[in-house]
Specification:
- The protein is α+β, with helices and mostly antiparallel strands.
- It has two helices and four strands; from the N terminus they run αββββα.
- It has a domain of 34 residues.
- The radius of gyration is 29 Å and the shape is rod-shaped.
- This is MYND finger.
- InterPro entries: PP0621-like.
Length: 78
């Protein structure tokens, strides 16, 4: 009877380790599939108010960046 319990325990431990390894591999695979999450977005500074904003939301006039059309128009009319 003792040998049977030992065999069942070994099977349960083996199944648990196998399941744990599969879950770890699945979680590692998820983090490598989404590389853009931790990639920093390029930031620029508004020439008028000096606030930093993402480059894709900023307005550009010649070599200068602005956070809104009002700041761009104010600065370019001077």
């Amino acid at each position: 009877m003792g040998l049977f319990k030992l065999l069942v325990l070994a099977i349960v431990v083996f199944a648990g380790l196998t399941l744990w390894r599969r879950l770890q591999a699945r979680n590692a695979g998820r983090s490598t599939r989404t590389p853009g999450i931790n990639t920093p977005e390029p930031m620029v500074r508004c020439k008028e108010c000096r606030v930093h904003i993402p480059a894709d939301k900023a307005l550009r006039s010649k070599d200068d960046w602005y956070c809104c059309a009002e700041h761009r128009d104010t600065h370019t009319h001077e």
